[in-house]
Amino acid sequence: MKKVLITQRIDKIGSFNEERDNLDVNLIKFLEKVRLMPILLPNRYLDQKTYIKKIKPDGIILSGGGDPLKKDQRRKNEINLIKYSITKNIPLIGICRGAQVINLFYGGQIKKVKGHVRKFHKIKLDKGKKIK
User: Fold this and answer.
1) DSSP conformation class of 131
2) Which tens digit of pLDDT belongs to each residue from 3-50?
3) Dihedral of the alpha carbons of 47, 51, 57, 63, in degrees to the nearest 10
4) Where are any strands of DSSP class E within the chain?
5) Which of 10, 39, 98, 103 could pair with 94 as two cysteines, CB 3.0-4.6 Å apart?
6) What distance lies between CA 118 and its chain's CA centroid?
């Protein structure tokens, strides 16, 4: 079974402002249906490079949820994963926020659009521009 490394959003919960990593369980259900093994990436794991090397993911998913412009540990992890996917030629997909982080990585911009939640989005690429 192929392994897919997945990022998680960071939420602060309760009156103690406890920080937690979170992921929509529907993503896990989907990966099970398509016979992929989900491997969750903790945001605060100190030695992420070793973690990723030991897992040897067959693919990477930058998950949704949260602000793609927020420069937190998750964003730093996702930028490193984009670079890793390029270096190791591993498939990478971004879901919602994850797609926006990939867009920002390649120099794109983000603008607010009313009524964008739970909608299909068109993606435009410059035909003459090669993405490496």
Assistant:
1) P
2) 999 999 999 999 999 999 999 999 999 999 999 999 999 999 878 889
3) -50
4) 2-6, 9-13, 18-22, 36-40, 59-62, 92-94
5) 98
6) 18
